[in-house]
Amino acid sequence: MLLKSSRYVFLLPLLFIIACSSKKNLPKQSGKISSKVVKKYADIMDVSPKKLNNNQLYGFIDDWEGTKYKMGGLSKSGIDCSGLVYLLYRDVYQKEIPRNTSKQVEIIKRKYESQLKEGDLVFFDYDGKAFSHVGVFLQNGYYVHASTRKGVMIQKLKDTYTYKYFSRAGSIK
């Protein structure tokens, strides 16, 4: 009987570790997202729900929306703009890109604003610093980013406050 119980002593911690392992940084499955999520983002961007074809992208955004801003952050307890873009590209597009904005701007093929497509990067110059903020273009003039005031959110590129700081955009090479 002692031999049987000693096996459990070794198995219980192993089962505990397996059961408690985190899945927080795994990409979402490419399956369907709920029609409620599709409608939510279609309404925000004023597009037809049929135009939202990238389930992983909008599932990712929905999962991170509202996460507070934290300089250098890379988790649900706080994230910065370049960290959001880094994780989005890793989890949605399965591409490794640099972690910081100054390096992210170096790997884009520049585009005019009228040429922007879903997944392109948009850069801003705040506080007199070139390329101090980054987001990911979505559709119909909207982008997702980690705002210092409201956390992860979707915003119109031509927003009267932020558009004056817009400086560059492009696709990942």
CATH architecture: Alpha-Beta Complex
**CA-based shape:** globular
Question: Helix- and strand-based class?
Answer: alpha+beta
- Give the number of domains: 1
Order of the strands making up the biggest sheet: 3-8-4-5-6-7
What is the CATH homologous superfamily assignment?
endopeptidase domain like (from Nostoc punctiforme)
| H-E string | HHHEEHHEEEEEE
Number of strands: 8
Major pleated sheet: 6 strands, antiparallel
Helix fraction, binned, reads 25-40%
CA-CA gap between termini: 64 Å
Total helix count? Answer: 5
Low-confidence stretches: 5-30
Could you report the average pLDDT, rounded to the nearest whole number? 87
Briefly note the CATH topology name.
Answer: endopeptidase fold (from Nostoc punctiforme)
**Fraction of residues in β-strands:** 15-25%
Whole-angstrom Rg: 20 Å
